[in-house]
Amino acid sequence: MSDTNFTASRGGFTSKSGFILAAAGSAVGLGNIWRFPYMTGINGGGAFVLIYVICLCLIGVPLLLVEFSVGRHGKANAIDSYAKINEKVKFIGYIGLFSSPMFLSYYSVVSGWTIYYTVRSFTGLRNVPADVMGDFFGSFISNPTLPLLFLAIFIFLTVYIVANGVSDGIEKYSKILMPILFIFIVILVIRSATLSGFKQGIAWYLTPDFSKITPAVIVAACGQIFFSLSVGMSGMVTYASYLKGDENLIKTAGIVSFFDALVAILAGLVIFPAVFTYGFEPGAGPSLVFITLPAVFNAMPFGSFFAFIFFALLIVANLTSSISILEMPVAYLIEKKGFTRPKAAIFIGVIGFILGIAVSLGFGVWSGVTFFGGMSIFDIMDYLGSNVILPFCGLAAAVAVGWVWNKGAVAEVTNGGTNSQGLGRIWIGLVRYLVPILMAIIFMGQIGIIKLG
Predict the structure, then answer these.
(1) Model pTM?
(2) Which residues, 6 or more positions from 385, have their beta carbon under 8 angstroms from its beta carbon?
(3) What percent helix, strand, coil does the chain show, rounded to 5?
(4) Over 384-446, what HEC string results?
(5) What are the tens digits of pLDDT across the range 69-123?
(6) Residues near 45 by Cβ (< 8 Å), separated by ≥ 6?
(7) Are 265 and 49 in contact (CB under 8 A)?
């Protein structure tokens, strides 16, 4: 099928910049602005950042290129794209298909919290004393109805964008949302640079303490790659399936990875100087964004404005990621089950919303519902997604491309050998040997087969 007929039948990105912004938007999300700072905080600051950058180069970029190559070669939904490599590896696409509503559900629950905090930034968040900010957050997420309203709003926005198609929905809104995201984060970095604790925060954040580099920190930094780059759930396979055949995949993967890492590091530049300025704990963990940072904003002049900018930034980042999560099963339903795009988007969105209800109530009236190890509904979904599905699919994709497809993969990423042949050989070497070994260690460490730290 020619690129022209392909675009006409499935739709596609109309420009290189549109794809890069959409892919960068998919990568930039909660993993960069919520998870990366708190993981940095609890894993030693600069030591974690250093290992993260190394892991990004050795694992993240190669895996992103794996998904790009599979998608563009397949020019179909993720299942059929993997099947074109070998029928035996299409299970990777199926895992992504069936896990996407789960990812969408708990991702959207947290994203709904950011909408609430954005609204409250101008309607009362400033009036909450720092010592009761934790109670304020706990009271909100345990409310049986209010979080569901904001969950529904976020799901609706996601469904609306995806229902409008690849060029008129995903590409169009990525071109609007991504520049807004960068403007917001630059505003916050400039504000952070004026704080008295800027030098102290930056020193802690970017100066590696090599004594804090442990196997557990290395695994945590490598695991962070999946959150940062959105690899492992086949969303990037789906996006790349809408690409034309002359796209330089190696260059594109590098650009997307750079922007993804840039946003994560800038998020730390926003957060840690503020934390040090006002005497808060950088290792506060997952509560850093919803408990510690609101207290920080309340302590600074014009804090309501900067709180609004920060949480609006989170909404934008989360939305650009959620549309890629939704697009993966939507593409399958359109191509294999004959759904119209709006019907497919609404169908998966409703499933995600129903699962999201369970996740949200798990913080309140269903808080007594626990799984092994006392995990809540949110915890078990996060554990399955973060510790099992993403690293396992990343490992499986690397093996499939590096060992099963191999020469065909090199031809795909080098556009038939017309460019970047040296980088193509380095890439396939990493995918065949280093990435599977590191991924296997990460996977076994995440699920507890081996103990680290």
Answers:
(1) 0.91
(2) 99, 102, 103, 106
(3) 80, 0, 20
(4) HHHHHHHHHHHHHHHHHHHHHHCHHHHHHHCCCCCCCHHHHHHHHHHHHHHHHHHHHHHHHHH
(5) 999 999 999 999 999 999 999 999 999 999 999 999 999 999 999 999 999 988 7
(6) 204, 205, 206, 207, 208, 209, 212, 272, 282
(7) yes
